[in-house]
């Protein structure tokens, strides 16, 4: 990793905020509700990585210019925004799976009689 990129990430704080929010979100998610199996873990991990991936793309592009209120504020703003988006997407995914199961699975997933 070039030293200029590391300096830019630390100096402007947006990308570091997104990475920190991913680590905190996964830690809190698995600490508060440990998954029973791999599928439940993937329901949390995949939406969180999806949000973090796109947020990191935009954060890295925005790290070209310094934030008006400083690196600490940019870090906090991007960390909070990406954390909230991760939480919302994971909750929406879990809710849609619960509703899908409640209304009945397709025959391929139901128990074979």
Notes on the protein architecture:
With 113 residues, this protein is mainly α. The protein has helices at 3-12, 14-32, 38-62, 71-103. Helices cover 77% and strands 0% of the residues. Mean pLDDT is 83; it is low at 107-113.
Strand content: under 5%
> Which bin fits the share of residues in helices?
over 70%
DSSP strand tally: 0
Order of helices and strands: HHHH
* Gross morphology: elongated
Could you tell me the radius of gyration in angstroms? 18 Å
User: Would you identify the regions where 5 or more consecutive residues have pLDDT less than 50?
Assistant: 107-113
Overall pLDDT metric: 83
- What is the rounded distance between the termini? 56 Å
Largest sheet: none
Number of contiguous helices: 4
Overall structural class, as computed from helix and strand content, comes to: mainly alpha
Can you lay out the helices and strands and say which pair or pack?
Blueprint: H1 3-12, H2 14-32, H3 38-62, H4 71-103
Helix pairs in contact: 2-3, 2-4, 3-4
Write a short abstract of this structure.
With 113 residues, this protein is mostly helical. 77% of the residues lie in helices and 0% in strands.
């Amino acid at each position: 990793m070039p030293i200029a990129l590391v300096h830019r990430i630390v100096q402007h704080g947006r990308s570091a905020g997104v990475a920190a929010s991913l680590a905190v979100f996964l830690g809190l998610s698995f600490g508060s509700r440990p998954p029973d199996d791999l599928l439940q873990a993937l329901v949390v991990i995949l939406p969180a990585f999806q949000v973090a991936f796109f947020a990191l793309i935009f954060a890295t592009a925005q790290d070209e210019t310094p934030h008006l209120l400083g690196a600490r504020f940019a870090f906090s703003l991007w960390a909070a925004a990406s954390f909230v988006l991760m939480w919302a997407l994971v909750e929406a995914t879990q809710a849609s799976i619960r509703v899908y199961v409640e209304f009945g699975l397709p025959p391929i997933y139901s128990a074979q009689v």
